[in-house]
Amino acid sequence: MQVWKDYQAENKDRFLDELLALLRIPSVSADSRYNEDTRQCAEAVKQRLQEAGADKVEVCPTAGHPIVYGEKIIDPSLPTVLVYGHYDVQPADPLELWHSGPFEPVIKDGNIYARGSADDKGQFYMHVKAFETMNKTNTLPCNIKFMIEGEEEVGSANLGIFIKDNKERLKADVVLISDTSMISLENPSIDTGLRGLAYMEVEVTGPNRDLHSGVYGGAVANPATILAKMIASLHDENNHITIPGFYDKVHNLSDADRAALNAAPFDEAEYKKDLGVDELWGEKGYSTIERTGIRPTLEVNGIWGGYTGEGSKTVLPSKAFAKISMRLVPDQDWHEISDLFAKHFEAIAPKSVKVKVTKHHGGSPYVTPTDAVAFKAAQKAIHSTFGKDPIPVRGGGSIPIVALFEKELGLKTILMGFGLDSDNLHSPNEKYGLANYYKGIETIPYFHQFFAEMSK
Amino acid sequence: MQVWKDYQAENKDRFLDELLALLRIPSVSADSRYNEDTRQCAEAVKQRLQEAGADKVEVCPTAGHPIVYGEKIIDPSLPTVLVYGHYDVQPADPLELWHSGPFEPVIKDGNIYARGSADDKGQFYMHVKAFETMNKTNTLPCNIKFMIEGEEEVGSANLGIFIKDNKERLKADVVLISDTSMISLENPSIDTGLRGLAYMEVEVTGPNRDLHSGVYGGAVANPATILAKMIASLHDENNHITIPGFYDKVHNLSDADRAALNAAPFDEAEYKKDLGVDELWGEKGYSTIERTGIRPTLEVNGIWGGYTGEGSKTVLPSKAFAKISMRLVPDQDWHEISDLFAKHFEAIAPKSVKVKVTKHHGGSPYVTPTDAVAFKAAQKAIHSTFGKDPIPVRGGGSIPIVALFEKELGLKTILMGFGLDSDNLHSPNEKYGLANYYKGIETIPYFHQFFAEMSK
């Protein structure tokens, strides 16, 4: 719509400046040292929503980081879209690998470099600006509700409680989220599913204290060695996961669905070049697209034990630790998988060590119905600004609360992401394309327009 | 000798205070942040040697931490004993496990708790006080030279150069070192051998940056997982080391020697209780005494990679690291073993990762001839103060430069240690028994006396 184009053209620079200001707030939810910044970020989001024209905007306290809520109800008889996003970000370390400060956004080669630029500040903020566009031009076609949380990167532990306590307030017809990526601006795509997550931490204890590796070496189980052996045993020679029962509930796609999935553009040479690896790695019998989309995985996210400082120390450590997470697919249940992992990990521990397994957090996998009105509206919106239909793909990441929306609110979720896999999410030098940011702001109003029309 | 007894009784408290003062200096050689403290510790050692009556005392600069030299030549025709020790200490971390400050010595239950109390400040300082005893009572039976270095805990890289450059100054008949332990004060023992050491660091690189474990998990080799698999493969199901050629030069003891070795008192139940483990672990077919004394070992001293901070981070790390050291036995060469390790570790790395192997440092194993005059003198000295003959045992630790003394100076070394295996060397709450300290000061003069007499 021309009025949207004009309004967005006039306010282009401000739209960017406001995002940069948000990116300067280090709202790292996993690290309690940033709790005050995280709270300030919530206040900033509240103010931006009010300025955009939202009503009843509120920073809702939780047992953890607060949730920002706001809404614009123009006519209760019209459809309502619930926009979800998160203002918290991943930790920035390893800091030394960043080319510029993670919280000092820099624009370079058409990209915004900053922690949270793509995940998810840059993406949820597109919705705030799209809403502002429709609101200020008096073209809002439906009701909109915003729920922007601050604990997505640490498992959204308190969002579930908030949703249960606010079912009436959150009543809507569909949930709209931009927290995923598309193949490219030339090949727009929509995620039709997400993997679930089960995040565990393990502690292996050998001797009751660090020992001299010369005096005791060879006579006492070294927890680092034992942990290595245990981790090594979690994948077999075909890179299948060896946890008993792990695959029992995995829903296998039909050959037709697999073929459709593999039809998406994928350049293995380019993929390897981008990652700097000579060879890919993964579960035997599946393509890379399948390995990252429809197959469950188990990854070591962190491992540590013994002396890791400068120089050398001839110590036989008392303890070794690892953070291990599993990505789940329909119909795996993350509680069940967490239990299977814990049971197995304890079972394979030799008598010479003690093992402690802790559940960090998790979430269930999700699949979007491609025949739903909202999905069609999203397709049409993307077509109207990209000039082509989006390719349906399965996302490898997890947004645990998507399954929660369905369970608690009975709502389907549309995953209309505008990022790229190469945006370095969770990595140093996270970036988000300026073009992606503006394209998102341009596309989102069409979703609301088409969804309102097609819902009649 | 009564004069020794009297002198030591009169100066008992000062002997302790002086040691405590040395222990308050954090001379951590591995950590450059302590370089100034380490230098100050060398100056303190110099002053103590001068006060004890040594001549030509000098802090000799090296490319690393300095070496303190001092001597007392009473008659060139008499035998000369070269006393070696080290004033540097291991890093103190993990600090949170110390009951009192590692550099704030505390006397509790008859023990001195402090980093370096047993390894090696408390032990080399016994020689300074034993020398003072003989010198001040005009009973010095032979010439004594002191060489106290500051890089033993980081591989004595510069000591070799110093020895090559000072062969004349270091001329002696035997090297005497107290940097090992005995079974107990009730069961005195002398180490008749030491294991060698080859200390390596490995770096495994997967993707060129940390990745989102959801977006890429399952499609790219995780360096932490690969490192775990590689480490796991270094021991087989019998805990034999799998590096090709590793055992080729291992000198196997005769059944008689093994029997003699296993005759030493060893209480497995007590050993397990002390370490808090339900089961011991080690190479099949060998006893604990053999596993820690006459068999080579491979231990992970440290491992790290990915996110090791608070909370969770769903990252697929770019790199994973490990510090791995091997204890060597006669006739393994540490350079050769280091090369075998590097070659093997690179060979077992899958194409999907890159591996970098670095040599930290090492040293050759050593065996003391039990028929040497100096060894007999040490046995007699211990008998005269403990009332029984010491049990000959093989020490599991390494003092790399012992082999160097033989090679460069043609000198045998006597390992007359007064510590205990339970002194928490290289661990939190390192301790040294007051009784051990004073017993050492009491015993050492007898060594010099008997060595002088028996050398005639």
Automatic annotation (TrEMBL), chains A, B:
<dbReference type="GO" id="GO:0046872">
    <property type="term" value="F:metal ion binding"/>
</dbReference>
<dbReference type="Pfam" id="PF01546">
    <property type="entry name" value="Peptidase_M20"/>
</dbReference>
<dbReference type="InterPro" id="IPR002933">
    <property type="entry name" value="Peptidase_M20"/>
</dbReference>
<protein>
    <submittedName>
        <fullName>Dipeptidase</fullName>
    </submittedName>
</protein>
<feature type="domain" description="Peptidase M20 dimerisation">
    <location>
        <begin position="192"/>
        <end position="351"/>
    </location>
</feature>
<dbReference type="InterPro" id="IPR011650">
    <property type="entry name" value="Peptidase_M20_dimer"/>
</dbReference>
<keyword id="KW-0378">Hydrolase</keyword>
<dbReference type="GO" id="GO:0008233">
    <property type="term" value="F:peptidase activity"/>
</dbReference>
<dbReference type="InterPro" id="IPR051458">
    <property type="entry name" value="Cyt/Met_Dipeptidase"/>
</dbReference>
<keyword id="KW-0479">Metal-binding</keyword>
<dbReference type="GO" id="GO:0006508">
    <property type="term" value="P:proteolysis"/>
</dbReference>
<dbReference type="Pfam" id="PF07687">
    <property type="entry name" value="M20_dimer"/>
</dbReference>
<keyword id="KW-0645">Protease</keyword>
